[in-house]
Amino acid sequence: MRNLLIVFALSVILAYASQYYGYNYMLEAGEKKKVNVFIVAMVVLMILFVGLRTGYNDTATYLRGFENAETLQMFFADKENLNLLHNPLFYFMQAFFHTYINNVHLFFMFWATINIILFVRFLLTYTDGEDFAFTIFIFFALGTFVFGMAALKQISAMAILTVSVPYLLDKKYIPFTVIVCIAALIHTYAILFLIMAFFRSKPWDVKSLLLILATGAVLRTFNGTVMSLLSYADSIGKSVSAEEVFDGNRMSIFRVAVFAITPLAIFLFRKWLLPKMNAVEELFTNMGIISLMFMMLATQNGANMFGRIATYFELGITCTMPWTLRHLFEPRSYRIISMLCVVCFVLFFLYDNSEFDMSYRTITVMEFVKMIF
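Structure (tokenized):
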């Protein structure tokens, strides 16, 4: 885990430095554009760590998938590949790289570059400047960064979804829907992000209550309800095996409790916090609540499915945690509470990634360069 901890620490340090230093000006189309060298360095570091991997979680599955991928001509010859429910955009990109580049490391590096840039851009846009380093810390500590080395299709769809958020906030529902549908062509479950169009109101209102009641009802009738959903999915052409859901894998209550901290804190202190919220904080808090509800389902069974669906919404927790602490405490108390949070989340990170080194493998930058040239 040493290398992961180094990347974690350096990314937070670079993010902190970017809050105060590092701005240079680059000439672009005759105009000066401000660029922060520390953010660029952080992004490059994160991209290399993710993009150079050769092993972690299901990376081996994607390696084999690339090696056995169809050519672009074969891809278009099989109409089943164009089924909108079978992640056609991802497999098109895989066929494209396999046909014209035939280098799995460039394929991984392509997605790592797109995903990390979109995530950092999103966090920069929706985080107060003074909280950016803390937000990057939460991005690592909650596991979103590490998850980016596991479910390639899903994390890529999740990154694309960040592009839809500005349109949702501006109530431009057509471009919002188009972008969500593009993400769903990479990973079908991303289509669930469309429900955010109905959660632009104050958090912990009637909609939140109905969501909690619905989650409770599913928990009480978990097997029957899920089997009905699987049958419906099968009827529209999206086959999900029962074994994928009823695989015996359950999300730990401890993990759910960690993710519940921010949504529950906002609920407990809603009289103070809700009046201070703008549309951004309201939307992100609702994202956190939805993420938590899917995690609750994952405690019953199907952690891989429900837990990963929850990930689509967890950036809301990442962004609202620093905001919540800053608006709950005075500056001096905020610094103390923030340090306590850092200690606790570092311990959670160590617990959550205790077996990281058992599966993570990588090539060096020089090996990557030699493979290209």
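The CA atoms of residues 21 and 104 lie 37 Å apart. The beta strands are 23-28, 31-36, 53-55, 361-362.
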